[in-house]
Amino acid sequence: MMILEHAAVEPFFKNGFVIGCEDTREGVIVDPGDEVEQLLDAARHHRLAITSILLTHAHLDHVTGVGRAKAALGVPVWLHQADNFLYERVVQQGQMFGLPVDPQPPIDHFYHGEGPLRFGRYEVRVLHTPGHCPGGVCLAISKDTKEAKDTKDTKELPTLIVGDTLFAGSIGRTDLPGGDMETLLRSIREVLFSFPDDCVVWSGHGEPPTIGREKRTNPFLI
Ligand SMILES: [Zn+2]
Ligand SMILES: [Zn+2]
């Protein structure tokens, strides 16, 4: 089984993730925020060699731990280019909430299309899902197809890390700079709802729903 740990702390209770390959012990950190120390502890606990820091988008709650993670790990930071204007204004984002926030180190790589990026035996497809913000992406993580063919893992569903695109019973807010409701609903319907119903959706806040449950019950989408 793929290693997946998550943590969330006040004030935003935003989920950060550590995801790792159970065989090679390579992994990635996704959206390190104020819970970054817990994520680094989880990576150590699982003896993971973290190879990159992947961001779903650049709202401050998802990026305030980037500097600390990069200093600890020395690995590149990835973001969609369309969110770089938010990332570069993380200090001003903090001021909007009355919070002191440190500037973060520059982005090393912008995502190129869907990728895929890799860690260990897993590949990460990067799906552009704008609407909550212009550069929002969802990460679809699945076992390398070449590897999966030789094992019983073929039927394993992808793991979806969706940032603030979709929540259990809700969707991301669209009233922040660059947000747009129609665009967000289209991203969810066309990109996320193309995945099987049983796929678990790891949202940026709250408990993980499934694609099928949100298709049937999410008041913004039925
Ligand atoms: Zn957000
Ligand atoms: Zn958030």
Topology (elements, then pairings):
Blueprint: E1 3-7, E2 16-20, E3 26-30, H1 36-45, E4 49-54, H2 66-73, E5 77-79, H3 84-87, H4 90-96, E6 109-110, E7 117-119, E8 122-128, E9 137-143, H5 145-149, E10 159-163, E11 166-167, E12 170-171, H6 181-190, E13 201-203, H7 211-217
Parallel strand pairs: 3-4, 4-5, 5-6, 10-13
Antiparallel strand pairs: 1-2, 2-3, 7-8, 8-9, 9-10, 11-12
One zinc ion binds next to loops.
Features:
222 residues, alpha/beta, six-stranded mixed sheet, 7 helices, 23% helix, 25% strand, globular, binds zinc ion
Can you walk me through this structure?
By secondary structure, the chain is an alpha/beta fold. The protein is 23% helix and 25% strand. It has helices spanning 36-45, 66-73, 84-87, 90-96, 145-149, 181-190, 211-217; strands spanning 3-7, 16-20, 26-30, 49-54, 77-79, 109-110, 117-119, 122-128, 137-143, 159-163, 166-167, 170-171, 201-203. The chain has a 6-stranded mixed beta sheet with strand order 1-2-3-4-5-6, with helices on one face. It has a 5-stranded mixed beta sheet with strand order 7-8-9-10-13. The protein has a two-stranded antiparallel ribbon with strand order 11-12. It is globular, with a radius of gyration of 16 Å. 44% of the residues are buried. The mean pLDDT is 95. The structure holds zinc ion (2 copies). One zinc ion is lined by residues 14, 59, 61-62, 164, 204-205. Residues 57, 59, 132, 164 line the site of one zinc ion.
